[in-house]
Amino acid sequence: MPRPLGELEDAVMTRVWKWNRPVTVREVLEDLQRERSIAYTTVMTVLDNLHQKGWVRREAEGRAYRYEAVSTRAAYSAALMNDAWSQSDNPAAALVAFFGMMSEEQRVALRDAVRIVQGPEPQVSEPVERPSAPGPSEENPAADGDASGR
């Protein structure tokens, strides 16, 4: 199970996930600087740490690197939820409590997700009445006696 990302790691990974392409330290830095004062070396260190932790892969491009997410934000969130759930001594009660915290929008998303996992519902049709097979003395006289029908 992955440890939860720290605040700055999450801010960096949010951009990497959102852009969904290899990114440079400079690109992440410039976007982060819209929200906070931060140094190039800080962003470089965070991306290097994320690489060492296995969150991003990197490829050299000249004297710099381009970083790309190893998995999706959805996979990260799912791993966090699964870890929290598996730590419970009563998983059913934990799910009930979790569902109770959900907004209506989240419950709709949950129902949609369950439908996707379960696949299409089987078509329910009216039972078809089939004629019963003929009895021995009705249409099949050979069943009562010999092959001549007697």
Automatic annotation (TrEMBL):
<protein>
    <recommendedName>
        <fullName>CopY family transcriptional repressor</fullName>
    </recommendedName>
</protein>
<keyword id="KW-0804">Transcription</keyword>
<dbReference type="Pfam" id="PF03965">
    <property type="entry name" value="Penicillinase_R"/>
</dbReference>
<dbReference type="InterPro" id="IPR036388">
    <property type="entry name" value="WH-like_DNA-bd_sf"/>
</dbReference>
<dbReference type="GO" id="GO:0045892">
    <property type="term" value="P:negative regulation of DNA-templated transcription"/>
</dbReference>
<dbReference type="InterPro" id="IPR005650">
    <property type="entry name" value="BlaI_family"/>
</dbReference>
<keyword id="KW-0238">DNA-binding</keyword>
<keyword id="KW-0805">Transcription regulation</keyword>
<dbReference type="GO" id="GO:0003677">
    <property type="term" value="F:DNA binding"/>
</dbReference>
<dbReference type="InterPro" id="IPR036390">
    <property type="entry name" value="WH_DNA-bd_sf"/>
</dbReference>
<comment type="similarity">
    <text>Belongs to the BlaI transcriptional regulatory family.</text>
</comment>
<feature type="region of interest" description="Disordered">
    <location>
        <begin position="118"/>
        <end position="150"/>
    </location>
</feature>
